[in-house]
Write a structure and sequence with these properties.
Elements (H helix, E strand, L loop, with lengths): L1 H22 L7 E8 L10 H15 L7 E8 L4 H14 L4 E3 L4 H13 L4 E4 L15 E3 L4 H15 L5 E6 L2 H14 L3 H4 E6 L7 H9 L4 E5 L2 H13 L5 E4 L6 H8 L8 E4 L13 H13 L8 H19 L6 H8 L29 E6 L4 E8 L5
Parallel strand pairs: 1-2, 1-3, 3-4, 4-5, 6-7, 6-8, 8-9, 9-10
Antiparallel strand pairs: 10-11, 11-12
Helix pairs in contact: 2-12, 3-4, 5-6, 8-9, 9-10
């Protein structure tokens, strides 16, 4: 009788276990299914090397046996940096592919078009590659965390830096006419307050514009002594090139997402970018000053194995690798419980994570009141052949 009871309990437990497993969407005994969209084509295609970097790091995780004996099945689709396409591909990932969660989808316009849908579906939407401030509102978007430093934080750091360097100068701002660019504009408005209209002359460009040359010419005519470009690499490169061609030499700042040497500096012309200032979170693997750094030596070894033939000077691959390391940390912290609830919980419970390729002093800390992977930035200046970091690690409140 005891034996029958034991068998019955075992059977019931097995059935319960099967039901629990079935209820864990995207997770089986052998794999964890994760989804993302990237702009592999379209006007922001250079940024999509972030996706390739992430895929490469996931391959390395799987080669090491996966997480808890489960391989990561990372499914990515091209959205061409087009919101309608992002919506289509995101719905496919959630409803057809039945992923466990979204991780590292890239592109502000597409994220803006899908964030409400993903949150409504209660799918973890983790470390999205955008720094739009509204995406960090965990009360409105409880399933979302962000993987880029906030554009608001970056904008305020730039405004403060310009004010110290050129306190009396007029500031020109060229910004992408979407949430990315508008967050920088709002940051400057927040910093300068009532003096904004007298201090800043702003010009918005559309992604559909083939060139922003006329914007640069008009901004130079304003008499501004500083120029901030807040957009994607293609347009940042055009701005650098045009400013050089017309002999305009303002205090020139570009945003973090456009700091890739391969995607921005080389197309513009390295000699034309001398003196440009930008924020960063990561070491530059092509910079000789890091050649004996243990983190960069690891990255070069990883890159040679998993991204053979790719351009190691493209920081988008590096950022994608760092995203992969964050993913690995989250899954390890799950300790075998890959329910959506626990995945989200662990994404908001990262403490002092220091990655080998981050600038020393920059760490990842998330929590109940912080949805951002990064809240710190380091300023750097292009010297013609590499980026030179200067000053202290900064955040939005730094003086």
């Amino acid at each position: 009788m005891a034996s029958k009871l034991f068998v019955g309990v075992s059977f019931a437990a097995a059935v319960f276990g099967m039901q629990a497993q079935a209820e864990t969407v995207g997770v089986t005994d052998t794999e964890i299914k994760i989804g993302a969209t990237f702009p592999y084509s379209g006007p922001a295609s250079p940024l999509s090397n972030t996706g390739k970097g992430l895929i490469a790091y996931v391959n390395s995780i799987n080669d090491r046996g996966g997480i808890g004996g489960k391989k990561i099945n990372l499914i990515t689709y091209d959205d061409a940096y087009s919101p309608p396409k992002t919506v289509e591909q995101t719905r496919k990932l959630v409803e057809s592919d039945e992923i466990a969660f979204m991780f590292s989808p890239q592109g502000t316009p597409g994220i803006a078009a899908t964030i409400k849908y993903v949150n409504l579906k209660k799918v973890p939407h983790l470390f999205v590659v955008s720094g739009v401030n509204k995406f960090t509102n965990f009360k409105e978007f409880p399933m979302t965390t962000t993987g880029l430093p906030s554009y608001d934080t970056e904008g305020k750091i730039y405004a403060r830096y310009i004010s110290k360097e050129l306190p009396d100068a007029k500031i020109a701002m060229l910004y992408q006419n979407d949430d990315l660019g508008k967050d920088f504009l709002s940051a400057f408005k927040g910093y300068f307050k009532d003096s904004f209209d007298k201090k800043v002359v702003a010009s918005a460009y559309e992604l559909s514009e083939p060139t922003i040359d006329s914007h640069i010419v008009n901004l130079k005519a304003s008499g501004a002594g500083a120029l901030v470009v807040a957009g994607t690499p293609k347009f940042a490169a055009q701005a650098i090139k045009k400013a050089f061609e017309i002999g305009w030499k303002p205090l020139f700042l570009i945003n973090y997402v456009s700091t890739s040497v391969s995607s921005t500096i080389v197309p513009a012309g390295p000699e034309k970018a001398i003196g440009i200032v930008a924020a960063t979170i990561a070491k530059d693997p092509s910079d000789k000053k890091w050649e004996n750094d243990a983190g960069i030596q690891w990255y070069k070894s990883h890159f040679a194995k998993y991204l053979p033939g790719a351009d190691i000077g493209d920081s988008n691959y590096l950022f994608g690798t760092e995203q992969g390391q964050i993913l690995e940390q989250i899954l390890k912290q799950c300790a075998g419980d890959f329910s959506r609830e626990n995945i989200l919980k662990q994404a908001r419970n990262i403490r002092g994570l220091s990655l080998p390729t981050l600038i020393p002093g920059i760490t990842i800390n998330t929590g109940p009141q912080n949805s951002m992977a990064y809240t710190q930035l380091q300023l750097q200046r292009w010297n013609g052949s590499s980026w030179e970091q200067f000053g202290d690690i900064l955040d939005a409140g730094s003086e």
